[in-house]
Amino acid sequence: MNHITGIITTLNEEHNIVECIRSLRLICNEIIVVDSLSHDNTVTLAKQEGAVVLTQKYLGDGIQKNYALNSASNNWIFSLDADERISPELAEIINALPLENTTYDSYAVKRRNHIGSRWIKHCRWYPDYCIRLYNKTLTKFCNSKEHAYVEGKNVKYLTGYILHYSFKNIGELFGKAERNYSTRSAKIMYLQGKKISSFAPFIHCISAFFTKYFLHLGILEGIDGLSIAVSTASTTYQKYAKLLEYQTDEKVRNAENFDNIW
């Protein structure tokens, strides 16, 4: 086995953390959990599984994922979200990598995204390559607070995959996306000074649905594909409608806390 440190960022992940850590044990000799002040049993369970736990108020996606790098005893890092699992096939591939002699600074893996137990093969949910294994002395996650990624320059794409249990069911598909993303994205766009017209929410909503359902072949996924397209359109509409509201309604804007995005 290579010397790899697994890093997991968490917030109230007691239902996921044990399986996630055990999954990382397939390839890692060290595991660090960066917890964002969970109020459930995440920290206790992580410690019981032998992980080192660091506590840090959430700073944004990329910054949070980089927080543990100085605490990692290995140069090679594998970043895994709490609702993800390493497949046995991927573990076998990674354990055979010559990391001590490689010319690559990072490795990208496929991600199988699920709703419930259903693997979604279209809607651009697969292969969904993402860099997760990287040498911290050569690269790391960008410091973006939203949708951060590893800035690898010499990347090897592996055939193995991680399992991502994105949503427990269709209800969570709608609720989680709208609850976590639309307001946050609207605030970010407003702070960036983005200006839109009154037609923007409608135009972006229709475009998002058409793209996800037809261009990204959601139509081939049955009710799941339709649900993903409708959810994407709904979240997109809300994001731009909220931005428009911030622009045009001083009372709403003044009542919003733009310092509390993350």
Query: What is the assigned CATH homologous superfamily of the largest domain?
Result: Spore Coat Polysaccharide Biosynthesis Protein SpsA, Chain A
User: What's the architecture of the largest domain, going by CATH?
Assistant: Alpha-Beta Complex
Portion of residues in beta strands equals 15-25%
Number of helices: 8
Total number of beta strands: 9
| CATH fold call of the largest domain | Spore Coat Polysaccharide Biosynthesis Protein SpsA, Chain A
What about the largest sheet? 9 strands, mixed
This entry's quaternary arrangement is single chain
Estimate the helix proportion, in percent.
25-40%
Please report the distance between the alpha carbons of the first and last residues.
Answer: 36 Å
Kindly state the mean pLDDT as a whole number?
96
Characterize the overall form. Answer: globular
Instruction: Give the SSE string.
Output: EHEHEHEEHEEEEHHHH
Key attributes of the depicted protein:
9 strands, 262 residues, Spore Coat Polysaccharide Biosynthesis Protein SpsA, Chain A, alpha/beta
Describe this structure in words.
There is one protein chain. This protein has 262 residues and is of the alpha/beta class. The chain has two domains: 4-167, Spore Coat Polysaccharide Biosynthesis Protein SpsA, Chain A; 170-255. Helices cover 38% and strands 21% of the residues. The protein has eight helices and nine strands. Strands 1, 2, 3, 4, 5, 6, 7, 8 and 9 form a nine-stranded mixed sheet that branches. Helix 1 (17-24) links the parallel strand 1 and strand 2. It is globular. It starts with a strand and ends in a 7-residue tail after the last helix. The model has no long low-confidence stretch (mean pLDDT 96).
